[in-house]
């Protein structure tokens, strides 16, 4: 066994609350989002986690979640690396549109395909495969080597940038990834083997409400 990788999606943002496609736009956490980050952080504290380093995206909602989690585990000053490689999938022309309005305009099925399929990009934006094509190399060069050295690493990022990682870690097919939704503020604790396969995965919270 090597180290531990903790993935956590940011808490609810203003635009999650307003049901808007967000992507690379940069809204703040809502009050509930702050609470979700606190709950996730407390779950990690109760689990007994101490991190060696944290990674987050270039977007406020993930950075703020990261900060809250680190505060809850008693490591407010931990080194934190921010990189846009971990940003949310770019939703392109959908960014800022209401998700229900989009369903009315283009149909439920098409919007689901844009949101959850592996390789169909929304207009002007990134597919999950495109997102993975920037997240995965960053993970391989900056994050995974630390975990394989035995470190405990926090990654606070986004629904789709994390789905692209979970797809590979959990060996999900293109069909399985369609059904995977990550709840806001719920940490996933992966212990990795020396060959970087997953030895164990603990989900510290309820993923069932994610949509
Ligand atoms: O960018 C967004 O709108 C959300 O963070 C994730 O959206 P999704 O659940 O529609 O992929």
UniProtKB/TrEMBL annotation:
Residues annotated as binding substrate: 9-16, 22-23, 61, 88-91, 99, 115-116, 159-160
Active site feature: 10 (tele-phosphohistidine intermediate), 88 (proton donor/acceptor)
One example of a Gene Ontology biological process annotation: gluconeogenesis
EC number: 5.4.2.11
Site (Transition state stabilizer): 158
Uppermost EC category: isomerase
MF-aspect GO terms: phosphoglycerate mutase activity
Pathway(s) per entry: Carbohydrate degradation; glycolysis; pyruvate from D-glyceraldehyde 3-phosphate: step 3/5
NCBIfam families on file: pgm_1, PRK01295.1
Assembly and interaction partners: Homodimer.
Protein name: 2,3-bisphosphoglycerate-dependent phosphoglycerate mutase
Species the sequence originates in: Rhizobium straminoryzae
């Amino acid at each position: 066994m090597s180290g531990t990788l903790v993935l956590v999606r940011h808490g609810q943002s203003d635009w999650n609350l307003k049901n808007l496609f967000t992507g690379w736009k940069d809204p703040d956490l809502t009050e509930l989002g702050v609470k979700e980050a606190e709950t996730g952080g407390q779950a990690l504290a109760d689990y007994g986690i101490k991190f060696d380093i944290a990674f987050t995206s270039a977007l406020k909602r993930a950075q703020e979640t990261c900060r809250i989690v680190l505060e809850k585990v008693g490591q407010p000053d931990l080194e934190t690396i921010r990189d846009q490689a971990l940003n949310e999938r770019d939703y392109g022309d959908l960014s800022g549109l209401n998700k229900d309005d989009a369903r009315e305009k283009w149909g439920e099925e098409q919007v689901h395909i844009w949101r959850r399929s592996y390789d169909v990009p929304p207009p002007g934006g990134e597919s999950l495969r495109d997102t993975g094509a920037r997240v995965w190399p960053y993970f391989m060069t900056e994050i995974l080597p630390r975990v394989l050295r035995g470190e405990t690493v926090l990654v606070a990022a986004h629904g789709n940038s994390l789905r692209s990682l979970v797809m590979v870690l959990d060996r999900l097919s293109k069909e399985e990834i369609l059904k995977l939704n990550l709840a806001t503020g719920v940490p996933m604790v992966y212990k990795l083997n020396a060959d970087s396969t997953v030895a164990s995965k603990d989900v510290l919270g309820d993923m069932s409400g994610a949509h």
